[in-house]
Amino acid sequence: MKLQSYDELLHSRHRLSLMLFLFLNTATSLFFLCSNEKSMPLALTLPTVIIAAISPVILLWMILKPSGKFPILNMAALITGLLWTWQIVLKYSLVFYFDGSFLVISLVGVFFISTITLGDHLLAFCLHTGPASLAILVLDHGQHTLLILFTIALPLLGFTLHHLMQRRSDHFTRRLMHQLYVEKETYSDLSMLDPLTGLYNRRGLKNRLEGILENHAGSHYVLLLDIDHFKAYNDNYGHAMGDQALARVSVAIRDAVRSRDIVTRFGGEEFLVLLTNVNESIAMKLSDRIRQYVLDLEIPHRFNEQVATHVTLSAGFAPLFENDFDGALANADRALYLAKNSGRNTILSYEDIGRSTLSQPADALQ
After folding, report:
1. Per-residue pLDDT for 69 more than 70?
2. pTM of the full predicted structure?
3. Within the chain, what is the greatest distance between any pair of CA atoms?
4. pLDDT of 151 higher than 90
């Protein structure tokens, strides 16, 4: 989950809170409108009608258009809070002679709606309960001040603490998700690199190859390189020395090509370079420069005496046509095979193979 997904989750929770808030306001207002009890005179009041009319309309709109823009929760809380305050003031003028507990019950009713729906939204909670609380304190004339203040203060304190803990939790979650995302990107990058040489591995090559083929026009060449007699080097010098040789050769290859070329450790002692936006002549020059850089390392290799007394490599390269990487790789591998058979420490182009084949007389090809 990314931070964007987490924000979408918070938006969804905000939306559900608003929908539940509208539903409870609708249910409460309809209860008052449909009540015919004598103990509840003047059930049909303008604020109740307004709440019963607006809340279900907005709720239905949110259900039918889940991806649309919705009213701000704080605004909805303030408007309904003012309407319920108006309702309490209207009814209080009719019932205060008969029911001395009306104000406390009304306050509990307002807090009931806020408690269920606005527990994660402290500002909306205050906007919804604030107007009614102030009106009830004024209308009470000091008769139940302590009880009313206690009824107000207890949930307000609780929700304030809950809100602070929720904010800390959200902050911690965001920070943790950011850290996990950074680590994921780091591990993703590391998974595309060969740990010994620091070059791309096959997965890294595939990842980079997609971007190269999509965004770079022009001719590209696949260059396949192999260290000569490396098995003998490992057998006689040991694998630790072999790893050191591989690391030094990989640095030489990387230094010999351009920054836009993709260098990959393709196998044990095999390397692949994707030469971008080059022709055959430049591809040959870059390939031979790699060969010379490796030879100039002067890594002793006495079991390579048929070629040199130092570590050398052979290479074959082929053009990449119509984004057919597998075909170019097979051609470069063919050129490398022939370069090995030609005495090693040699660079051979697949196109040269084709030209030399065409130049042979017909009887020589039979």
Report:
1. no
2. 0.52
3. 125
4. no
